């Protein structure tokens, strides 16, 4: 178990591309951190810089109070699970797991104990003599996990380890990885572009966008009070309803009405409302907006009601089976559920 | 592992080791490049000297002023090495051999591969084995009987006798078969639904699809054809049919003859002309060349 | 065959016809002819030939000259194969590693592929020219009188040197493309597992290159056996004399210069068997070869 600290890390690739623009991150021992963001935002770069596979252009990275900037990847006491697993195709499952330990000159019996233990944990004991090419996708994934576990590292690094699996296996492995990590208590950084994976697995989520950290927070914080329009639109499916408006103090003027705010804001803003935080009624009052219904998507447990507020598309979650009321419809939202962002900067206000 | 001291101190040695390692890597690569380059450089430099200097001092490091003259003689004067043929004629013959070999090989092997892959043909397996057995034995091991058969057919000293026997192997067919098999199955099905027959499918779909493959193979085959030596040496005794590479034998015979001072500069010029076209093609179409080589040889 | 193949019966025959005609006339016929005439003794004056059974083979096997050539061929093949593979591998590993100038190195190291073997032989011959060749001078400076064409081992040295030089580019290209097909993440995983670059090379990179290496091994043996004819012919200036020869060169010398049709054919058949054995060996390796997917 180790804490990890990333201070003012910048990464500029030799071709001049500025991939990480000043990252700061403090990770507690045993924490499971998920780096999430759209593809190309620099998640892998940041992870690989922490691993030592890329050199940071500036800034400082420490693992367990030891500055590791100039330490070889093999000496950072980390383990990494790659997207395509990166198993050594010419080695058996056993050798794949033992390779890192051998290179650390561990005695053979100790290597054996550790490999057998990891194999047992992952249900791989039967397959130790197989080559990776003789395994299914899920089994290869487990071997990659095993290779990481046997080293008893200070830090696990995962780079989209589940994206090559089918949906069912993916959700199963999600749970397993988290379970294993809790058991072992190893600090972990997990990269994914899948916000569901991020929400379900993370102790804390780091949202990256264009090489910058947009927000760091628990899944609930990220979901309920996103720090920027980007985070609001990236996290959550269906995404948060966003629209431009003008705030005048404690309420916000919108076509056909106004919404209350729970704090004072002035000027042009972008507001964001989660679909499940809006309620459809047929009762108009001072704090409702007229809603035009287009169609309803049936998802079994819930329904997504698609419509418009003025010209802006707007989606509402409905949990009850009751049909929509007849006649004119309205949307009401409580003040604390209206997220307000600056229209120019996109940052929370 | 929780050491409290920082390891900043290690930074310098690590960086320096890197630099040293890079220096070593580049030195090895530069040495390798020089090893490949220098002999050719010497030939080029030497081609700019007169024969007396070369006869006395051997290959030259520097350049002199005889290059244009030597190249002119190599190209247009027939007397220097062979009796009756000049470099220009040999260049043409080399082009005919290189192009004929490449085009012939691509044409017949594409046709054969198409027949094997895209037709329901009972005899296909047999044809396949008949063709692919030829991969086993190079021309060199059956050179004498091949020569006698070509002689019997009256093809000595003809372009067809020069080119066709060289085509009798399956490298191209094997390659196109592999490539055709990798073309998605649905393509031929869609084409048939669209009403394309086998000829239309071949010309409208398969050939355009194979364009880069054809280009890659063409480059390899052209170079291989151009560089043929043993077969042309046997089959062309008429100097009018000599290729440049075949002409090297003449150069060598003259140099080996100690009775007179050979035209060294002209000889080097001829050697340069003999290697220039394939070298240029390989350099210009480097990525196709590598593709053709790596994918056709496997 | 594709599952939706065309059913026309005549078109495929027509398409196969050119290829089949050519290989029957210029491959199967001469190959069988070689086997047949290896059992006959040709009258030296061209008056027919008589069946002698295995006599040609017997003469061959008892010939000290032939054994000497076979032994030299073995030595030649081993040297050429080993050194051209080793040098090319070293260069490919370095070219794959450096970031700056990688493309230029690649070009510089591969273009010699396009040079014809006899042209390479000519360069070699000039470099070892007795009176003023540079390699001769180098040896002279080291106190050794290098005599290409006169001293057996000196001539062998020249042949081997040129043959290695000519083969490096092909090996380099294949090794480099083999190296570049190793996934980046695999190398990175190895970097995390193993600190030492040298050890990483021998435990990860080298085994992963094994399929390429096996393939090249066969290619290089075939090259050394057959494709070096032009080099040898030029280096020894067409004079077999007392010079080192390879088996293929001897087939040519005995068949075309010595007019020993039977003997030359028997040698051809021996070579055929050799090539077939190599091919069988190659297929065995391919069967066994680990499929890295
Ligand atoms: N070696 C490199 N050289 C130059 N640019 C790179 C390199 N690797 C990645 N990049 C660029 O850096 C950006 C971030 O890449 P990456 O960290 O892989 O993104 P992610 O993992 O979030 O999809 C991308 O725009 C990518 O094109
Ligand atoms: Mg990535």
TrEMBL record, chain A:
GO terms for cellular component: ATP-binding cassette (ABC) transporter complex, substrate-binding subunit-containing
Query: Which Gene Ontology molecular-function terms are recorded?
Result: ABC-type transporter activity; ATP binding; ATP hydrolysis activity
Q: Where are the transmembrane segments?
A: none
Which is a GO BP term held by this UniProt record? glycerol-3-phosphate transmembrane transport
Q: Which residues form a coiled coil?
A: none
Q: Which intervals hold domain ABC transporter?
A: 4-235
Task: Name the domain of life this protein comes from.
Answer: Bacteria
Cell inner membrane keyword on record:
yes
- InterPro entries membership: AAA+_ATPase, ABC_transporter-like_ATP-bd, ABC_transporter-like_CS, ABC_transpr_MalK-like, ABC_transpr_MalK/UgpC-like, Mo/tungstate-bd_C_term_dom, NA-bd_OB-fold, OB_MalK-like
**Record key words, sorted:** ATP-binding, Cell inner membrane, Cell membrane, Membrane, Nucleotide-binding, Sugar transport, Translocase, Transport
Quote the SMART domains the UniProt record gives: AAA
Q: Which PROSITE patterns does this chain map to?
A: ABC_TRANSPORTER_1, ABC_TRANSPORTER_2
What's the family? Belongs to the ABC transporter superfamily.
What NCBIfam families does UniProt report for this protein, alphabetically? PRK11650.1 (NF008653)
Name listed for the protein in its UniProt record? sn-glycerol-3-phosphate ABC transporter ATP-binding protein UgpC
UniProtKB/TrEMBL annotation, chain B:
**InterPro entries (UniProt xref):** MetI-like (IPR000515), MetI-like_sf (IPR035906)
Membrane-crossing segments per the record = 23-44, 95-119, 126-144, 156-180, 201-224, 266-290
**Top-level taxonomic group:** Bacteria
**Locations listed in the record:** Cell inner membrane; Cell membrane
Which residue range or ranges hold the ABC transmembrane type-1 domain?
Answer: 91-285
- Role of this protein: Part of the ABC transporter complex UgpBAEC involved in sn-glycerol-3-phosphate (G3P) import. Probably responsible for the translocation of the substrate across the membrane.
Give the family, as the similarity comment puts it: Belongs to the binding-protein-dependent transport system permease family.
- Recorded protein name is sn-glycerol-3-phosphate transport system permease protein UgpE
Q: Which organism is it from?
A: Halocynthiibacter styelae
Automatic annotation (TrEMBL), chain C:
Primary localization:
membrane
Checking InterPro entries in the record gives: MetI-like (IPR000515), MetI-like_sf (IPR035906), UgpAE/MalFG_permease (IPR050809)
Protein keywords: Cell inner membrane, Cell membrane, Membrane, Transmembrane, Transmembrane helix, Transport
Any one GO CC term of the record: plasma membrane
Q: A Pfam family for this UniProt protein?
A: BPD_transp_1
Annotated compartments: Cell inner membrane; Cell membrane
Residue ranges occupied by any ABC transmembrane type-1 domain in the UniProt entry: 74-282
Question: Is Transmembrane helix found in the keyword set?
Answer: yes
Q: Which GO terms describe its biological process?
A: transmembrane transport
Question: What domain of life does the UniProt record list for this protein's source?
Answer: Bacteria
Its membrane topology is listed as: Multi-pass membrane protein
Keyword Cell membrane part of the UniProt annotation: yes
List, alphabetically, the CDD domains matched.
TM_PBP2
**Spans traversing the lipid bilayer:** 12-31, 69-93, 105-128, 200-226, 266-286
Q: What does this protein do?
A: Part of the ABC transporter complex UgpBAEC involved in sn-glycerol-3-phosphate (G3P) import. Probably responsible for the translocation of the substrate across the membrane.
Give the family this protein belongs to, as stated in its UniProt record: Belongs to the binding-protein-dependent transport system permease family.
Q: What does the subunit section of this Swiss-Prot or TrEMBL entry state?
A: The complex is composed of two ATP-binding proteins (UgpC), two transmembrane proteins (UgpA and UgpE) and a solute-binding protein (UgpB).
- In Swiss-Prot or TrEMBL terms, this protein is called sn-glycerol-3-phosphate transport system permease protein UgpA
- Species name: Halocynthiibacter styelae
């Amino acid at each position: 178990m180790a804490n990890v600290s990333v201070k003012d890390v910048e990464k500029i690739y030799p071709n001049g591309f500025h991939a990480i623009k000043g990252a700061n991150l403090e990770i507690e021992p045993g924490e499971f951190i998920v780096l999430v963001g759209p593809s190309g935002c620099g998640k892998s770069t940041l992870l690989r810089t922490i691993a030592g596979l890329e050199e940071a252009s500036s800034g400082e990275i420490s693992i367990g109070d030891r500055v590791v900037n100039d330490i070889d990847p093999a000496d950072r006491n980390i383990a990494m699970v790659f997207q395509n697993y990166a198993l050594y195709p010419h080695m058996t499952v056993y050798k794949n797991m033992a390779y890192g330990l051998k290179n650390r000159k561990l005695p053979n019996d100790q290597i054996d104990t550790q490999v057998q233990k990891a194999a047992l944990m992952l249900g791989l004991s039967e397959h130790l003599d197989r080559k990776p090419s003789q395994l299914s996708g899920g089994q290869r994934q487990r071997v990659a996990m095993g290779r990481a576990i046997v080293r008893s590292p200070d830090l696990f690094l995962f780079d989209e380890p589940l994206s090559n699996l089918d949906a069912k296996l993916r959700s199963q492995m999600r749970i397993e990885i988290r379970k294993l990590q809790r058991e072992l208590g190893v600090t972990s950084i997990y990269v994914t572009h899948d916000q569901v994976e991020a929400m379900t697995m993370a102790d804390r989520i780091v949202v990256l966008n264009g090489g910058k950290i947009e927000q760091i927070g628990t899944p609930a914080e990220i979901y309920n009070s996103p720090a920027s329009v980007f985070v609001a639109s990236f996290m959550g499916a269906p995404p948060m309803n966003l629209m431009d408006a003008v705030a005048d103090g404690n309420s916000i003027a919108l076509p056909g009405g106004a919404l209350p705010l729970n704090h004072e804001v002035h000027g042009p803003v972008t507001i964001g409302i989660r679909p499940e935080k809006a309620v459809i009624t047929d009762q108009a009052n001072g704090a409702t907006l007229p809603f035009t219904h287009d169609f309803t998507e049936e998802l079994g447990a819930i329904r997504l009601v698609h419509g418009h507020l003025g010209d802006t598309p707007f989606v509402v979650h409905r949990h009850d089976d009751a049909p929509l009321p007849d006649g004119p419809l309205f949307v009401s939202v409580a003040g604390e559920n209206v997220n307000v962002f600056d229209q120019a900067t996109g940052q929370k206000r | 592992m929780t050491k409290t001291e920082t390891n900043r101190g290690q930074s310098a040695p690590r960086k320096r080791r890197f630099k040293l390692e890079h220096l070593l890597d580049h030195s090895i690569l530069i040495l390798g490049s020089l090893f490949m380059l220098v002999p050719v450089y010497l030939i080029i430099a030497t081609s700019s000297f007169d024969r007396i200097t070369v006869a006395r001092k051997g290959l030259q490091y520097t350049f002199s002023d005889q290059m244009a003259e030597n190249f002119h003689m190599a190209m247009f004067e027939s007397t220097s090495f062979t009796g009756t043929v000049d470099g220009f004629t040999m260049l043409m013959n080399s082009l005919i051999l290189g192009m004929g070999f490449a085009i012939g090989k691509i044409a017949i092997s594409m046709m054969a591969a198409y027949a094997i892959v895209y037709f329901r043909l009972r005899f296909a397996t047999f044809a396949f084995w008949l063709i692919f057995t030829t991969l086993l034995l190079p021309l060199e091991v059956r050179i004498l009987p091949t020569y006698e058969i070509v002689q019997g057919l009256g093809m000595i000293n003809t372009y067809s006798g020069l080119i066709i026997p060289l085509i009798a192997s399956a490298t191209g067919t094997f390659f196109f078969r592999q490539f055709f098999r990798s073309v998605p199955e649905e393509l031929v099905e869609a084409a048939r639904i669209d009403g394309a027959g086998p000829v239309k499918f071949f010309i409208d779909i398969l050939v355009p699809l194979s364009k880069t493959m054809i280009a890659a193979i063409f480059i390899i085959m052209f170079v291989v054809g151009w560089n043929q030596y043993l077969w042309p040496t046997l089959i062309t005794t008429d100097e009018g049919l000599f290729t440049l590479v075949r002409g090297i034998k003449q150069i060598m015979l003259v140099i080996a003859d100690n009775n007179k001072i050979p035209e060294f500069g002209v000889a080097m010029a001829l050697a340069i002309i003999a290697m220039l076209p394939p070298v240029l093609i390989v350099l210009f179409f480097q990525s196709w060349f590598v593709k053709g080589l790596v994918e056709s040889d496997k | 065959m594709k599952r939706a193949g065309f059913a026309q019966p005549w078109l495929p025959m027509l398409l196969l016809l050119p290829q089949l005609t050519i290989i029957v006339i210029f491959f199967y016929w001469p190959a069988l002819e070689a086997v047949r005439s290896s059992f006959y003794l040709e009258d030296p004056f061209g008056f027919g030939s008589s069946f002698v059974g295995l006599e040609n083979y017997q003469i061959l096997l008892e010939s000290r000259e032939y054994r000497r050539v076979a032994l030299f061929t073995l030595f030649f093949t081993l040297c050429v194969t080993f050194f051209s593979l080793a040098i090319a591998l070293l260069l490919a590993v370095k070219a794959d590693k450096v970031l700056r100038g990688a493309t230029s190195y690649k070009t510089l190291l591969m273009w010699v592929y396009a040079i014809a073997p006899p042209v390479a032989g000519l360069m070699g011959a000039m470099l070892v020219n007795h009176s003023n060749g540079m390699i001769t001078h180098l040896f002279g400076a080291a106190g050794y009188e290098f005599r290409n064409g006169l001293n057996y081992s000196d001539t062998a040295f020249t042949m081997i040197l040129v043959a290695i030089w000519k083969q490096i580019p092909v090996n380099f290209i294949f090794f480099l493309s083999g190296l570049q097909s190793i996934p980046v993440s695999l190398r990175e995983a190895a970097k995390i597992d193993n600190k030492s670059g040298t050890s990483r090379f021998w435990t990860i990179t080298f085994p992963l290159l094994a399929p390429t290496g096996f393939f090249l091994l066969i290619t290089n043996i075939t090259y050394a056996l057959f494709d070096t004819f032009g080099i040898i012919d030029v280096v020894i200036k067409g004079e077999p004399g007392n010079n080192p020869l390879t088996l293929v060169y001897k087939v040519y010398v005995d068949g075309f210069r010595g007019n020993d049709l039977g003997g030359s054919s028997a040698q051809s058949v021996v070579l055929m068997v050799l090539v077939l054995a190599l091919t069988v060996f190659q297929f065995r390796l391919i069967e066994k070869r680990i499929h890295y997917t």
